[in-house]
Amino acid sequence: MKKEKYHLEYVFDRVSQDSLWRKLSTEDGLVEWFADGVMIEGDRIHFCWSDEDCSSATISEVRSGEAIRFDWEDDPGTYMEFCIHTTELTGSRSLEITDFAESVERMIAIGLWDKQIDRLKHSLGVQH
């Protein structure tokens, strides 16, 4: 089945742009909430969730402090992208995630993202 692109957005109150950016773009930051192991080598990044569940991606776009995109090497044409937005009126931050899933697995994928974002918020000291 063909994977379809979807977007999610999560609000982060009282989180600095720098703190959120570190969680999205560094090995140590990503290990705290996204994967059990992360290794960045130049423009390649390796994620491991267990000894047998690993994936590699190319970091294809970086707008420092704002957005980062990972193109999956084992699934051409798909990627995962994180974009940080700031609401001018309130100063709160939101994280927009772009990802891909087969239509029958989309709700499961969204549920996994919800759990991952709970871990991210906890690592940032944000109340749920």
Point out poorly predicted stretches.
none
Q: Biggest sheet: strands, sense, closure?
A: 7 strands, antiparallel
Rg from alpha-carbon coordinates: 14 Å
Strand content: 35-45%
Mean pLDDT over the residues = 94
Total E-strand runs: 7
- State the order of secondary-structure elements, H for helix, E for strand: EHHEEEEEEH
Structure annotation, total helices: 3
Class from secondary-structure proportions:
alpha+beta
Form type: globular
Measured between the Cα atoms of the first and last residue, the distance is 35 Å
Strand order, largest beta sheet:
1-7-6-5-4-3-2
What share of the residues lie within helices? 25-40%
Short recap of the structure:
The protein has three helices and seven strands, in the order E-H-H-E-E-E-E-E-E-H. It is an alpha+beta fold. Strand 6 (79-86) and strand 7 form a beta hairpin.
